[in-house]
Amino acid sequence: MVSTDPRPILHDALRLDGGDDHVELRYHAKRTRSVSVEGGRVDQAKVSEHTGVGVRVLSQGTFGFASTDQLEVGAIRRAIETARAAARASASARKDKLAPPPHVQLAVGQFDAPGFLELSEASIDERLKLVLELEAHARKQSTKIVSASSGYTEIFEEKGIVTSDGASAWTRVARPELRVMTVAQDAGELQRGARSVGVTGAWDCLFRGASADELGDGAARMAVDLLSAPYPEGGRQKVLLSPSIVGLLTHEAVGHTVEADFVEAGSCARGRIGTRVASDLVTLCDSGASEFADGAGGTLDVDDEGVRAKRVTIIENGILKSYLHDRHTAAREGVAPTGNSRAWEYDDEPLIRMRNTYIAPGEQDLDEIIAGISDGLMVDGPKNGQADANGEFMFGTLQAWPIKNGKKGELQRGVNISGMAFEVLGTVDAVSRDFRWDLGSGFCGKGQPAKVDAGGPWLSCKMLVGGRGQ
């Protein structure tokens, strides 16, 4: 990472600007280290670094953006002028002029997530050794395992947000991620197994839920067991969703529809503040903090406009309460910004993005919920899927288990589940007290990547299940 202290440089560049426009400076240093192994061989070992300053200027009612990879006052001042010129050149084409953001309490100080120094000082050799051992361990679990791969990635970020209206926030965060994948074969049929974990924090945070060997065991067992697993029956039915599937539903089918820029474009959540959109058992939130369990992969204290990344209660006891805002959509709605403005690299403009999105835990034990289901299906393991601005979704799952007369049956193959998000949430009749973050690995895409997390409890609801031949 860059050794020069960026604080006086950003403050001097802003002080010397002399203009009366709203100006945001964002220093962003990102370093990524990754290793991957397949078939006992190192497939990739890579270190990359991307450092610079992003500049956004609001002038004559519109934004201009520029960036520089030079950490010096003169280069940043030139970027400010470039952004200002871009804003003024496009101002005549903008009908709905933006006002300067109203005054809010902006973050000032140092905000470091735990684990940054500990992880950054460790050698990548230790990580490579574990990835090699993990891949070999998974591959040896069964003669039916024909291939395995494993990978480890860690992202270190240092940011500084300095604005003309008072923000001066400096953050450091580390996000490690570990994954293992297996392929099993029998009688010409192939099945895949996968386990992954991504967190915010130090190395040991990866193994709070399972050891490395347990992750490998789980991936291998999943692939082998699915070879002989039958297909579930399809149709509309009671479904018990695991925390990982709840997280996928929460993020993809609900979270994106309540991002204020999507709302303004006409998502299904538009105009529904104060109306019922779910069962009264459902409280859905998005938070910069890792709530209920440590280490959520989207954890941050301050967003990229200098706003504290507080918790947003999106749905409270079934009632839609809030959208996710940056400073400007919040001003148009007459509400406080929610700390959801994020950019992936220094040369990306901030967008409204989720952080850690979840459904709050309930009051029932999982065994109690299963006992209350006479005929249903338990599903786990996000596989793939899609959702649109109307909240309509279709997700693939890796594993399923029938529930008959309150008893969980033998493993079946995963199914596609589908429905309209708010309609499905309206059918929720049981929420477990168990809670897990389970989508911290990988990225959310919305024009640019973002590290997020999502999760929740086990959730009983009704939706369409696609069985074999459907």
From TrEMBL:
Domain Metalloprotease TldD/E central: residue ranges: 119-227
Q: Name one GO molecular function term.
A: metallopeptidase activity
Sorted keywords for this record are: Hydrolase, Metalloprotease, Protease
Give all residue intervals belonging to the Metalloprotease TldD/E N-terminal domain.
23-87
Residue span, Metalloprotease TldD/E C-terminal domain: 235-451
Single GO cellular component term: cytosol
Q: Which GO terms describe its biological process?
A: proteolysis
Question: Domain of life here?
Answer: Bacteria
Q: Protein name, please?
A: Protease TldD
Which source organism does the UniProt entry give?
A: Saltatorellus ferox
